[in-house]
Amino acid sequence: MGMQATIKALADWLKAHDDYVLIGHVHPDGDATGSCMAAALALHALGKRAFVCLPGGVARMYGCFPRAAEIVAPQDALPFAPKTAFALDVSEPQRLGDAAALYEACEAHAVLDHHGTNEGFGEICHVDGDCIATGQLVLALIDALGVTLTKDMATWLFVAISTDSGHFRFSGTSPETMRAAARLLEAGVDIAWCTRQLWYTRSRARTKLMGVVLAGLEVSPDGRMAWARLTEQMLADCGALREDNEGIVNYLLEIEGVEFAALAEERDGATKFSLRAKEWLDVAENVARPFGGGGHSLAAGCTLNMSMEEALKQVLGRAQIALNNH
């Protein structure tokens, strides 16, 4: 495990290094993308060279945000050969995906994350599992760096915090989260435009995929568990991208009486799960971690190297035991 450092110590470390690649996790969501971009812009303000590399590249839904075209994927031509790797919102090394080699090739490594299961994998790490979004930690980092918060930085941080907090609906939303959001608005964030892009605009393919997946939902006899399947064939039939699955699992959790929800996705012979709980079930500890996964108490994930039906049997069985033990 890397050295657990304060935000101030991490800021001092970043000031002492240069030639950065900022890396988010595989299938990068709004928090990973927004945190990387805001931090990169802050490093630019210090006169540092920095670029963002996301495994799989930037998701289509974030392509309209400032300077998104500058984001590269690991297989792309890089702007320069980086010397310092900074992983943001990456809970474990495996989540670096095909950017792992780029991360390892650097001379120095830092980690900033909000997943409580993160054991640290850089020389210096700051992990705060009580923070609802890594973007909230990046705002504190920008302050510690002594950089002025610009509109572009604030917009990307709004993307990060809004998406991971369910647009300030999830239970982890704290007074500090709302104070951070207020600062972003003061920095010039267009809240109406950002909210529309993040929450009320979706492609036809993504809308079709939601309908197909939700049409096949199942609920346990006791009404406390809901699950659905997402296959490669569904994606092909809808003309959808893998990223279009974002948020579907939350609709399962909204069913009255449901405490645990799971979306099972077919992934090259394996089955990936997005797991959610409504109030009290710790899905990271009780469901994801026994299968090598992790995340937060109410939102976690894991991947099982087996068929979807066998994987569902395993995961739902584990969740049922946890529910029965409450």
Write a structural description.
The protein has 326 residues and is an alpha/beta fold. 39% of the residues lie in helices and 17% in strands. The chain has helices at residues 7-15, 30-45, 100-105, 134-145, 151-164, 175-186, 191-199, 204-215, 232-238, 248-253, 283-288, 308-324; strands spanning 3-4, 20-23, 50-53, 84-88, 108-113, 124-127, 218-219, 225-230, 260-267, 270-277, 294-295, 299-304. The strands form 2 sheets. It has a 6-stranded parallel β-sheet. Strands 7-8-9-10-12-11 form a 6-stranded mixed β-sheet. Helix 1 packs across helix 4 and helix 2 packs antiparallel against helix 5 (151-164). The relative contact order is 0.11.
Question: Any key phrases for this structure?
Answer:
6-stranded mixed sheet, alpha/beta, 326 residues, single chain, 6-stranded parallel sheet
Strand content of the residues, in percent? 15-25%
Largest sheet: 6 strands, parallel
Distance between the termini: 32 Å
Strand order of the largest sheet: 1-6-5-4-2-3
The sequence of SSEs as H and E is EHEHEEHEEHHHHHEEHHEEHEEH
List how many beta strands DSSP finds: 12
Give a brief description.
This protein has about 325 residues and is an alpha/beta fold. About 40% of the residues lie in helices and about 15% in strands.
What is the topology?
Layout (H helix, E strand, L loop, with lengths): L2 E2 L2 H9 L4 E4 L6 H16 L4 E4 L30 E5 L11 H6 L2 E6 L10 E4 L6 H12 L5 H14 L10 H12 L4 H9 L4 H12 L2 E2 L5 E6 L1 H7 L9 H6 L6 E8 L2 E8 L5 H6 L5 E2 L3 E6 L3 H17 L2
Parallel strand pairs: 1-6, 2-3, 2-4, 4-5, 5-6, 8-9
Antiparallel strand pairs: 7-8, 9-10, 10-12, 11-12
Helix pairs in contact: 1-4, 2-4, 2-5, 4-5, 5-6, 5-7
